[in-house]
Amino acid sequence: MRALWLLALTCATALALGLGLDSARAQSSPAKPAAPAAPQAVVRGLAPLPGNAPVPLADRPPGAVSGDGGPSPVIFPPQQLTIRFNHKKHVKELGLTCTTCHDAAKTSQASKDSLLPRPKRCDACHGSDHRDLSAVTTDDDALMAQCGFCHLGYKPGDGNRVARMVMPAPNLRMNHALHVRRNIACSQCHGAVENIELATRDQLPRMKGCFVCHQMPGPARGQARGECVTCHLTEKGAVMKTRFSAGTLRPPQWLHDAGHGADWVQRHKQVAGNDSQLCASCHQERFCTDCHDGRVRPRQIHPNDWISMHPVAARQNDPSCTSCHRQQSFCVGCHQRAGVSMSGPYANFGGRGRFHPPPEVWSNPPRSSQHHAWEAQRNINACASCHVERDCATCHATPARGGRGFGPKTGPAGLGDSGFGGQGVNPHPRSFRDRCAGALRRNARPCLVCHDPADSKLQECR
Amino acid sequence: MGVRPSSLVVLGALTLLCEVTPARAYEAEVAATSDAQFYTLRSPWGDPIVRRRRYTQALALSVYDIQGDFVPYGPQLAFRARLRLDADFGKERYETNPRQPGTFVPDLVQSPVDVMYAYLEGRNYLGGWVGFRAGRQYVTDSLGWWSFDGGLVRLTTPAYFQLEAYAGFEQRGGLPMLLGTERYASDGVYRGNRDELELNQAPYFLSESRLAPAFGFALESVGVHFVHGRLSYRKVINRDRVVVSPFPDTGGGFQRVGGDRVSSERIGYSVRASEPTLGAARGSLVYDFYNQVVSERALALDWYTTDQITVGADYDYYYPTFDGDSIWNWFTHSGMTTLLGRGEWRPSRRFDLALSSGVKVFETEGDSGTYGTVEQQDRDPDRSETGRLSDWVVNLAGRHRWSDGSAGLRGATETGRRGHRVGGDVTLNQTFDQGLYDTLAIVSVYDWEDGLRPDRSATSFSYVAGGGIRPFDETRIGLEWEHSTNRLVGQRYRLLATLDLTVLK
Predict the structure, then answer these.
(1) In chain A, what residues touch B106 (CB-CB under 8 Å)?
(2) How many CB atoms lie within 10 A of CB A4?
(3) What is the pLDDT of residues B308-347, one digit of tens each?
(4) Which chain A residues are closer than 8 Å to B500 by Cβ?
(5) d(CA B217, CA B167)
(6) For chain A, how many structural domains are there in total?
(7) Closest by alpha carbon to B127, among A217, A218, A214, A238?
(8) Domain span at residue A120?
(9) Which of B154, B244, B287 best probes binding to A when mutated, by most A CB atoms within 10 angstroms?
(10) Does the bond joining A427 to the residue before it have cis omega, within 30 degrees of 0?
């Protein structure tokens, strides 16, 4: 109970710590626009909607969901927007199109290209002149031409410097020109930007939206393929790059139900067994072998002091041991060395006492609930981690096959040096009689370990 | 050290591959990992004491774009290989010397070397429809994680499925020249190289001197994102001539059996269906032809209740099966059924929490309290009655990540008539100076009770302190110190030193 209390206390502390840190981090997010210093009259274009009201889902990019906090910050790293801009006014009231300002999108073939309009593009309408930054206007009648009209945080007496806008290149492959040529409208990826004022990271595409078109791998889909590497950056060997300075990329829950949650390591078997090529999109063999065929104990599977604890886990009918370990090669050798296996060198285990409960409980009739038969029936893997087949055949082999159990000496003369024959105790399950013929036909070797070829029981299976 | 000459040949070949003419557009990568571990194990009776002085080194070579310049969706040819030395200098000579039978442990090698994988892979050939692999490679599907030496061809069709076929030899450990491990062979048989053993020496340790042919196929859906299914079939054949009974016959000899016989033959199907706004269902089924039973079946349902919450249920059934040569195929009477309810909460990208709880059930033949008390005399008792044994399971996992670190929480409980195991640990990772330095701290408390061996019950407290430095990209030097204390062993210490090095050419 003391351990239970400790565990509960640890859980509660970690949970509180996690949530506290999380909210603190969220508050310090750098994605928010800088504080405005524009004239009082200039209040539009500071946020997606006036008063930072939430953008209706219909106006957000396809695939966006309420409360998603924008696209992945690993794909689209946080931005620092130091400009105010009203898309709704420019498109709906002034009749501009997207490419009036973002004309570079028509020719851009790489995601690193900046698609923002050059400042001189603004000059044509705003009356400003970005060619000579020292000659800025302060004329109250030319409000639109003043630096502070668009540049947030502008201070007139500060050498006409404006805050730098930070828009890191997305960690993605993107050929805008290709999409434009295929008549894919901007709104198909970016949502209804014409209905909002300031465009933020929230107007950048969501992977779920990409899948509207990109959902088929292989040549069957032409160029709109669904392979990860169609859009995601790759490392050598065409494996997805997942580690960036902005963080590590992990699949969302909805993507093939492969969300790498906190208990993913316990759940990944089904996904990997179903579609290993999906895993291979991001992971090389090395990633798998480090746990499944590794030589350093993976702590996410085996916690501290596992060596002391593992006997209980193995005997608690935990079949997951066999996911990585082969008992007859991995376990037996070490157990023989440590003297916990009766099949090992006598010098290691002789004279040291029993590992299992006393014979009257463990091996002699009548069977109690702690009899070894129940353990073998329900979790033979645990038996196989210490024993070799000889240990079982000693009692379970028929007397004619030379077993050396404590049964009556009924075998041929010369068998059973100890003077006792094998007991021939039937270990087979209830349905064995229906299956023995097929098994015997496919591989007779295990049958012959306990049964003489002339054994009537064996003949019944032929 | 005892490194085999064949391993030097492989190393030489890898080196030669690195030195291919530089006129090509290929890119090569050589990665080496070295781990040194030092710890000591003690038998429950105090001795013997097993000293682990382990040194593991893996050398990986990858050569990409052998076909020439990379063209998106065009043919790609790559070679990947990884060679491993897994030495334990704590293994004593008397343990590995078969001429000292009083202390000899079969299959114990001080410095085994194995080729984990080494294959040539082609993708997108013949218009993108054909891919292939040749060499030692892994296959992962519902039949498990498996390795073989041979060839695999994958044919993609326009009809939303692809066909995969392979043939070769299962990777096994008994043939020294092949530098393999037993890791991927079916379990239940203790076998390996008997070259230096007398006939009557450890007769239960079976000979592994011949290749084990294997082949299989898979039919897999592609191109439909909301559903994915894979049907897999695999058969492995034993050909060694092995001892039958571990006991000598009247003449003092050992009877043997040889010829082709089934090692394993299984077919499995796995399917996943998902709808991003609703949830997902996953299921799998494996049928074992040798045992003629459904050895595994599983079903998992996930409901994406909200974008932050997923609830679900997992069902899993597992019936242990072994190599066709193993007698243990016929000792299991009933599989293990696990039923879990599960919930996952993701309030943000940085924090998530998962909780699962349920029961593991085993059905016994006969009542587990009275079975066999009378029927023992005829050795073939009535097994029509059934009983049930259950273990209760609770798992908790939580994680919080920040830009340069993370905190993880894990708790696990399993309790039943065989005792209990309960505990948890907290893990903290933090990097400094843009990842130049990293640190690790783990604290854990576990309590366990073994119902069959109450004297082995204990409460353990452990901690790990570690750190590393990345002097160059893809290079890390690390050190970890682990200290555990419980009443069974007193104090246990473990030291782990690692060196990871990657060279790009």
Answers:
(1) 333
(2) 16
(3) 899 999 999 999 999 999 999 988 888 889 999 999 999 9
(4) none
(5) 9
(6) 3
(7) A218
(8) 27-170+184-202
(9) B244
(10) no
Is A389's CB within 8 Å of B181's CB?
no
Q: What ipTM did this prediction achieve?
A: 0.88
- Claim to verify: residue A54 and residue A189 sit in the same structural domain: yes
**Averaged pLDDT, groups of 10, chain A, 462 residues long:** 52 50 41 44 81 93 88 93 93 92 94 91 87 77 85 82 90 94 92 95 93 68 77 88 90 90 90 92 90 87 91 80 88 91 88 87 77 84 92 86 58 40 74 90 94 87 84
Same-domain pairing of A428 and A356: no
Residues A192, A84 share a domain: yes
Question: Out of B127, B332, B492, whose CB is closest to A429?
Answer: B332
Q: Which residue of A has its CA nearest to B259?
A: A443
Q: Report the C-alpha gap between A128 and A216 in whole angstroms.
A: 49
Q: How far apart are CA B210 and CA B202, in angstroms?
A: 19
Is B444–A303 a contact, with Cβ atoms under 8 angstroms apart? yes
Q: Are residues A157 and A48 in the same domain?
A: yes
In single-letter form, the type of residue at position A382 comes to A
B-chain residues near A292 (CB < 8 A): 145
pLDDT single digits (tens) B265-303: 999 999 999 998 899 999 999 999 999 999 999 999 999
Evaluate if pTM is beyond 0.90: no
Task: Give, for B302, the enclosing helix (H) or strand (E).
Answer: strand B293-303
Q: What ranges in B346-423 are assigned the alpha helix state H?
A: none
- Structure tokens of A351? 């004279």
- Reported as a single tens digit per residue, the pLDDT across B110-153 is 899 999 999 999 999 998 899 999 999 999 999 999 999 999 99
